[in-house]
Amino acid sequence: MKPLLQLVADDEGFAPDLHRALRQRPRTISPKYFYDEAGSALFERICELPEYYPTRTELALLQRHAPEMAALIGPGAQLIEYGAGALRKVRLLLAHLNAPHSFVPVDISGPHLLGACRTLQAEFPALALQPVIADFTRPHDLPARPAQGRRIGFFPGSSIGNFAPEQALDFLRMAAQQLRGGALLIGVDLIKEPALLHAAYNDAAGVTAAFNLNILARARQELGAQIDPEGFAHSAFYNAPLQRIEMHLQSRRRQQLRLEHRVYEFEAGETLHTENSYKFSIEGFQALAGKAGFKAATVWTDERDWFSLHWLQAPD
Ligand code: AVJ
């Protein structure tokens, strides 16, 4: 198991992106900076929360329909997982696959990915595992295509919801090219009653708040930023017209924040926008996928229509 490591360009990274975020109005930073080791661990705790329905609902759908999905994937497939994380969901597919060519998890968090791969390899000793440490939202290389089977993409968790509509389209266009001749199996969270959405991002135990605030903890630890740990509050709400949950870090008072000799002012109530989590209708998502060149096929949903998994055929 030899990982393919792809470094990001020098002008990219947490420090320059955080400076850019703090100069901008409104202030916005990419949610990819949530996922250091502590953040990844907090996200896994979110997935276990009673209020956070997406993981549980998607896992049940995978469990129920894995044989049918494996049949669609077919023999000798090269399975590519975008933003692989803990590799919990893919196990359900792998267990049913017919002689897969290889499994290629792509993730930005190297240590986390390699740890998860070691555990997976122990469970599937015959599986060819080819991890790629890269930011899957930027151009990246993959191991060569199989001579026989197809490339199949797997993008669970409704992580597509983190992208603005134009970025989601860019990602889907990139995936359509990478997966030419194959397909994409993608998890998409559905529009539902706002109270249910609100609860999922404002859990009683405060894990989502800790996850959100972890961005500031990282800035202090990694970049030596001077930020009052008590100075910001977690804020998450459903923006119905834009069909998205927004997460922000909201300044509790007027204050200053120092990052590498620069000083930034926050007014009381001013926010740093840390994440969007878009929700879709089935038709709305299929239309978006269609614009990227995919052909919508099977859709699996739960009884309450809270979450969906889509089988999208990539162009030839
Ligand atoms: C991993 C992007 C799908 O949007 O629900 C969970 C991240 N943020 N709680 C989501 C998240 C707050 C999650 N995604």
What's the SSE blueprint?
Elements: E1 4-5, H1 14-23, E2 27-28, H2 37-48, H3 53-73, E3 78-82, H4 88-94, E4 102-107, H5 110-123, E5 132-133, E6 151-155, H6 165-178, E7 183-189, H7 194-200, H8 207-223, E8 232-239, E9 244-251, E10 255-259, E11 262-266, E12 271-278, H9 282-291, E13 295-301, E14 307-313
Parallel strand pairs: 1-5, 2-12, 3-4, 3-6, 4-5, 6-7
Antiparallel strand pairs: 7-14, 8-9, 9-12, 10-11, 13-14
Helix pairs in contact: 2-8, 3-4
Give a written overview of the molecule.
The structure is a single chain. It is built from 9 helices and 14 strands. Helix 2 (37-48) runs antiparallel to helix 8 (207-223) and helix 3 (53-73) packs parallel to helix 4. By secondary structure, the chain is of the alpha/beta class. Strands 1-5-4-3-6-7-14-13 form an 8-stranded mixed β-sheet, sandwiched between helices. It has a 4-stranded mixed β-sheet with strand order 2-12-9-8. The relative contact order is 0.17. The mean pLDDT is 95. N,N,N-trimethyl-histidine binds next to strand 12.
